[in-house]
From TrEMBL:
GO terms for molecular function: (3R)-hydroxyacyl-[acyl-carrier-protein] dehydratase activity. It holds the Pfam family MaoC_dehydratas. SUPFAM superfamilies: Thioesterase/thiol ester dehydrase-isomerase. This is MaoC family dehydratase. It comes from Aquirufa antheringensis. CDD domains: R_hydratase (cd03449). Residues 10-111 form the MaoC-like domain. One of its GO terms (biological process) is fatty acid biosynthetic process. InterPro entries: HotDog_dom_sf, MaoC-like_dom, UPF0336/Enoyl-CoA_hydratase.
Amino acid sequence: MLEVGNSYEIEFSFTQEQVNDFCKISGDFNPLHWDEAYAATTPFKKPIIHGALIASVFSRVMGMEFPGEGSVYLKQVSEFKRPLFVGTTYKAKFEIVSTNPAKHTAEIATQVFELERGKLMVDGFASALHTELF
């Protein structure tokens, strides 16, 4: 049973090939994500990962690991505080902050930290429904 305070963590990173594949899947070919020469002219100095690709980590965890299979991902709010880059390892953290057993829902804090420096990169929350776990 899931309860307030339950948490989950996962480390992840993306390659440039995965970012390029996401360009093809999403249709977002903004050169900021794949063109090193273009990105070098921006404040970021190198290509950054799509925010939606980062959010896909939340989707994977919510649907497969925490709360897990059978979950319905109802809502995600994310604030991207810093750019994320390929080849860097990040840690996604999830913590249940409230539950509503009558509606079989939970509010879950979702955060991404750069693993090496511990800097908060993405801050937000999600809502999930799971009839078997609450």
